Amino acid sequence: MALKLNQPSFQCPKISPFGRNQPTLFRSPTFLKASTLGAPPLEVENKKKPFTPPREVHVQVTHSMPPEKIEIFKSLHTWAEQDLLVHLKPVEKCWQPNDFLPDPASEGFMEQVKELRERSKEIPDEYYVVLVGDMITEEALPTYQTMLNTLDGVRDETGASLSPWAIWTRAWTAEENRHGDLLNKYLYLSGRVDMRQIEKTIQYLIGSGMDPRTENSPYLGFIYTSFQERATFISHGNTARHAKEYGDLKLAQVCGIIAADEKRHETAYTKIVEKLLEIDPSDTVLALADMMRKKISMPAHLMYDGQDDNLFENFSSVAQRLGVYTAKDYADILEFLVGRWNIEKLTGLSSEGNKAQDYVCGLAPRIRRLEERAAGRAKKKGTAPFSWIFGKEVQL
Ligand SMILES: [Fe+2]
Ligand SMILES: [Fe+2]
């Protein structure tokens, strides 16, 4: 049945947020205001267009991988069955959120909740900002499964496809689902955060999607996921370390067990890219250079809570200041992947491939130098209120 998409409240005289092939479909209200065409009156009234990302996303390139390359992924079915799916854990051997939470069916539930809340009091607000941001990132999982299913040659064609790529994506999603679930319940019980604001942010974020610029190409897509799994491994590892420093060993365990999953997923995704480098080195290293030139965007970069237009930047600043996820980590991940994939040692590349190899191999030190210079120039950032912690101000 058709949804009532054209009701007056959602309608805009010239630019329907739901219209097809509308050049301004994903553009932000800021863009509309700046437009020389002038914004239609309704757009001026509505600060945010409903159900669109909070800001402009890039020009959207689709299906950049030549269709004949789909054969490569078909030819890798046996490899994926034997070498990729082994990195999944059988459900019966997986931890579940309930293992790390007070069990509501147990006698001691109330007592355990009380203890959790006592421990939570020892942790500063700024830590919660980062933990909430990480949790929201995990909670936008529908977007990541969608993203994987945009990739040509590996998508789940039916929703229950028996291709090993589809099996991987569904089981990966099912494993990841425990992450947001566990963090969400833990934070809920802590009583330290504004759950309604957090829930709104999750709804906004899933509605906005993400813009990883992977162009339906599994080359780009699996480079992106390799990077991201390592980024989340680092970030959850750091929130675990901080929780331990604040004396909350249970929370440290929660973040640590999630980090361990991310590490396993990183192993799997980096293995796919390693395989692509073996079969098709030039185009794979070109894909790596392409992703790095475009910069790896964080999955929750379109985050919005209905209030703060700079929410993602503010959250990232706090994560940077606390050392949970930093610009240095970005360069370190790149350097790690370049080493993991032996990029420097690749031979027999096309001339374009050689250029991409040089670019990628020299990039991490360059990013570090630029970062150091930027850090030297950076002024103190001041503070920002976060709705997730009832509008309290946190140093950026
Ligand atoms: Fe995760
Ligand atoms: Fe992950």
Automatic annotation (TrEMBL):
The top EC class is oxidoreductase
Quaternary structure and interacting proteins, as annotated? Homodimer.
- The answer to whether the entry has keyword Transcription is no
This protein's source sits in the domain of life called Eukaryota
Cofactor comment: Binds 2 iron ions per subunit.
Cofactor names = Fe cation; Fe(2+)
What residues does Fe cation 2 bind to?
Answer: E176, E229, E262, H265
Main localization category: plastid
Question: What are the transmembrane regions?
Answer: none
Q: Where in the cell is it found?
A: Plastid, Chloroplast
Q: What is this protein called?
A: Acyl-[acyl-carrier-protein] desaturase
Role: Introduction of a cis double bond between carbons of the acyl chain.
